Amino acid sequence: MRISFDVIRDELRRILLQEGFTPARAERCATLFAETSLDGVYSHGLNRFPRFVTMIRQGTIDVAAEPVCVEAFGVLERWDGRRGPGNLNAEIAMARTIELARTHGMGCVALRNTNHWMRGGTYGWQAARAGMIGICWTNTNQNLPPWGSREPRIGNNPLIMAVPRAAGAVVLDMALSQFSYGALASYRRQGRRLSVPGGYDAEGRLTDDPGAIEEAGRPLPIGYWKGSGLSILLDMIGALLAAGQPTHRIPNDPLQEAGLTQVFLAFDVSRLFPDGGVDALLDEIVAHLHASAPAEGVDRVYYPGERTLLTRRENRERGIPVDPDIWAAVQAL
Amino acid sequence: MRISFDVIRDELRRILLQEGFTPARAERCATLFAETSLDGVYSHGLNRFPRFVTMIRQGTIDVAAEPVCVEAFGVLERWDGRRGPGNLNAEIAMARTIELARTHGMGCVALRNTNHWMRGGTYGWQAARAGMIGICWTNTNQNLPPWGSREPRIGNNPLIMAVPRAAGAVVLDMALSQFSYGALASYRRQGRRLSVPGGYDAEGRLTDDPGAIEEAGRPLPIGYWKGSGLSILLDMIGALLAAGQPTHRIPNDPLQEAGLTQVFLAFDVSRLFPDGGVDALLDEIVAHLHASAPAEGVDRVYYPGERTLLTRRENRERGIPVDPDIWAAVQAL
Predict the structure, then answer these.
(1) Distances (CA, A) of A79 to A96, B32, B45
(2) How far is CA A143 from the centre of its chain?
(3) How far is Cα B265 from Cα A303, in angstroms, rounded to an integer?
(4) Which of A127, A285, A333, B149 could disulfide-link A132, Cβ–Cβ 3.0 to 4.6 Å?
């Protein structure tokens, strides 16, 4: 079944008001969830909303808490998220980063003590809409073994990079695991093998069997040792910039995952190219990618974010695909 | 055979003086090459030096060119490398980035029109030695197929992140290909399979056969579609920040690879933690990693850069392992 963006947003807003959000914050938070489903990232949109409400009701997320700037070093600021709703906190942090970049050419906000930001790409699109290059990342709880270990001790720390472009922003939104636990479960339920090796089984053999990876708790970092190292560095840099919690201090129970650390960077492209020319340069790069000879069984090459724009348009026109059970569960909240 | 650091550096300096470097620049450039071999990155140390000299003699590298600041936006500066020696240019760029970070808390230098920086990790170690968080990346010529293509149209754009730490800096130095062409060739010559799948053969099958990947020209980006996206974003962001050449405009002949674009970022940790505490936090993260249960056949988990420090100590004490043929070729220069 498909449901329109407006109907989903209004339903989520109703629930958030009921949970104690102010009207303005309920509107923004509901919009962010609905936009995430609109863009096809169903796992962190509507499908994630019931868990979000559970975490509010058990007190992990404080609906009234707003982030505050605790230290300012000119172009770089440290903010405390005070365990408020993670997507609102992150949107406010990126908005402040953009303000700093408008003033200084670039800006950075390091945010500690926040909650899961849901879809990280949201804040990349936000930067691009403002004409900014945006870079941001978050840490997570321990959900990946570091390279050389069988035990999850690092996070899959999603990393987002975005570039503004008139014909369609270029937005990369990637967790550092090859497949999320959600994706592994989805493949398993459909009885499918992964498209590429996604982790190790309990005996330490590389495998494309999603169930074996889940049982062993050994999903793969992207690029094996490389993604493991990147996760460690993003966690360390975030903890230093924000004076925030590193991954290993974040509770491992998904319902208790709180006190996260995030970093937001923005660069003001209009300052860098006062006479324009940005789109000509980016369009040239995109055209070069689009002209790539496709691999076997592939229609063509897409730039990062291009499919999101296609999905967004389709879901806007036809309604957003919704799991009837999840929609019923949300309506019952 | 092993040769001491000092003997290698002095020999390289002799040659650079002969090629027209000033004494001070010959000293720095030779030191950077020798330190790269000292740290065990042989491919971009002594072993790369003959190609570096070839590129000087054919005019691709201008030994006399020094980088200049062409635009300053406060905390962010654009520099022109003027096709000077890539490692000297990059060291100067990171030194200026560090200066900006001392003044503003953070700093950024975007460098265009430069040459191959040899080992990217060099500039991460440089930032860490100065007490800075350092992040930098470079683009390259087209050496990887973007995801969905069989044709190399993106770069393996090495990305470096570094964190200062009294007990040993944490430094990640990774190209975005799973294996470099140099590594593929080395595995093939030894008749070995890759440790993990490293690319596609000519029929588009994922393989650990290095020769098949070389023949097809289809090495794998880290994380498949993810590393491909990361390469595209790093290239775009670099080209925008530096107003520099994107990957597809860089000549594909390795001996003509010039006019690269690089980005350097630094954050001043001493400003962020005026009362100390950085080492306690980082040591806690490192101890948590070190306590990870090892995987099958692994002795223990290492943090990024840890093995480099071990190699550096060993090579300092015992001399640097050197290929006799390459050493003879260098001495004949």
Answers:
(1) 10, 39, 42
(2) 16
(3) 25
(4) A127
Full set of structural domains in chain B with CATH: 1-58+321-333 (1.10.1530.10), 63-177+222-302 (3.30.1370.60), 179-220 (3.30.60.50)
Q: Which residue of A106, A145, A150 is in closest CB contact with B75?
A: A106
**pTM strictly above 0.95:** yes
Q: Give the ipTM of the model, two decimals please.
A: 0.98
CA proximity to B162, closest of B257, B5, B267, B316: B267
Q: Distance between CA atoms of B188 and B180, rounded to whole angstroms? A: 12
Tens of pLDDT, residues B166-225: 999 999 999 999 999 889 988 999 999 999 999 999 999 999 999 999 999 999 999 999
Residue B147 carries which DSSP code?
T
Of B106, B150, B293, the CB nearest to A76: B106
Determine the residue type at A64: A
Tens of pLDDT along B256-273?
899 999 999 999 999 999
CB contact under 8 A, B304 and A269: no
Distances (CA, A) of A310 to A38, A316, B227: 10, 10, 22
Minimal CA–CA distance to A160: which of A194, A186, A134, A182? A134
Parts of chain A with a pLDDT under 50: none
